[in-house]
From TrEMBL:
Needed cofactors: Mg(2+)
Record's protein name: DNA polymerase IV
Family annotation (Pfam families): IMS (PF00817), IMS_C (PF11799), IMS_HHH (PF11798)
The species this protein was found in: Amycolatopsis xylanica
CDD domains (UniProt xref): PolY_Pol_IV_kappa
Length: 395
């Protein structure tokens, strides 16, 4: 067998595809999910230059006839669960990357399910028939190349990279196809006339290290030669969980930012408790108008699952980054919780302070579980739309 064994399955314009699936009037038309900031765009809208995280005003200027719909996070979550059920019915070796993509290892299924390309074709058909969504699948020998293949095959495609054609496929691609090559690294490479993966591969590892630093240099040298020994990891617990809000281009007052941060902390802490986890590290993630990014982290003295502790850490981090926020124009803010452990694996300390906080968190969770997440909220959040949430990918 000269293909596979790894599949990278990635739903196409996931949020927008769910909206088009559920409303026949939207099919074949440009759809934008999210008004203030684009959370997702259908391929019909992308053809006009609309992109995720773009300001709503700019998106409507590029595509004035687009249909703008509010996000429905519950519908997207249900669709994701249905798709992952198809994944697990295909193979027990599934590694989820986010709400809409996963790696699957089908190398041991030749006798009972066929070749990787046959399995991938059947997977795409099953997702279309059972969930009603388009999905693209890349098939390759390594996780890296399978992901690249799915990116090249989009939308609604299937691309198999045979073992004897790996470098012939990879090397003509632009350097941005390499994992870890963002705007900054791409700029450094292109300034030196390096525009393709093949040109990266032609450089020695020492040259790449001197040019980009040890971590990035070693990483890109390996990927440019398709060296990726990672296997599909099943049942790996998430190392972090996060949530973020796109803010658009309008400047936000400190009070507005605090309200948004409060909503994020509320949501994350509830998810943390529902998963029976506690965290030690709180990270603030910021993105600015020039698309630059910044992070600030704080490791807590003790693991916690309490909303107010997480929010207090987030507020301190935001205060530390105040100069950046004021000078550069904030367009996205998020929190991530990491150093996660089970909530039954920590030692309680005397004295048992904070019982009232624990009781309040528990009571609020029960009310929201029974009556919905909007049944009770902070006074500062009353009347504020909650339509700008964006998923934060796992690390």
């Amino acid at each position: 067998m000269f293909e596979g064994p790894i599949l990278h399955a990635d739903l196409d314009s996931f949020y927008a595809s769910v909206e088009q699936r559920d409303d026949a009037a939207l099919r074949g038309r440009p759809v934008i999910v999210g008004g203030g900031v684009v959370l997702a765009a259908s391929y019909e809208a992308k053809a006009f230059g609309v992109r995720t995280a773009m300001g709503g005003r700019q998106a409507r200027h590029l595509c004035p006839h687009a249909i703008v719909v509010p996000p429905r996070m519950k519908a997207y979550s249900e669709a994701s669960k249905a798709v992952f059920k198809v994944f697990h019915n295909t193979t027990p070796l599934v590694e989820g990357l986010s709400i809409d993509e996963a790696f699957l290892d089908v190398g041991g299924l030749l006798r009972i399910s066929g070749t990787p390309s046959q399995i991938a074709a059947r997977l795409r058909r099953d997702v279309a028939e059972q969930v009603g969504l388009p999905i693209t699948v890349g098939v390759a020998r390594t996780k890296f190349l399978a992901k690249v293949a799915s990116g090249v095959a989009k939308p609604d495609g299937l691309l198999v990279v045979p073992h004897d054609g790996e470098l012939a496929f990879l090397h003509p691609l632009p350097v941005e196809r390499l994992w870890g090559v963002g705007k900054v690294t791409s700029g450094k490479l292109r300034e030196r006339g390096i525009t393709t993966v093949g040109q990266v591969a032609a450089l020695s590892e020492a040259v790449l290290v001197s040019m980009l630093g040890a971590g990035t240099g070693h990483h890109l040298f390996a990927l440019a030669h398709n060296h990726d020994p990672r296997s599909v990891q099943v049942g790996r617990r998430r190392r972090s969980m996060g949530s973020q809000r796109a803010l658009g281009r309008r400047r936000r007052s400190p009070e507005e930012l605090d309200s948004i941060l409060s909503a994020i902390a509320d949501r994350l802490a509830r998810r943390l408790r529902a998963a029976h986890r506690v965290c030690r590290t709180v990270t603030l993630r910021l993105r600015f108008a020039d698309f630059s990014r910044a992070t600030r982290s704080r490791t807590l003295p003790e693991p916690t699952e309490h909303t107010e502790v997480i929010l207090a850490a987030g507020r301190e981090l935001l205060a530390d980054a105040r100069t950046l926020v004021e000078d550069q124009g904030l367009t996205l803010i998020g929190l991530a919780l990491s150093n996660l452990t089970r909530d039954n694996s920590i030692q309680l300390e005397l004295p048992f302070d904070g019982y009232e906080t624990i009781a309040l968190d528990t009571a609020l969770d029960k009310v929201r579980d029974r009556y919905g997440s909007s049944a009770i909220t902070r006074a500062t959040l009353l009347g504020r739309p909650d339509d700008l949430e964006m998923p934060m990918l796992p690390d």
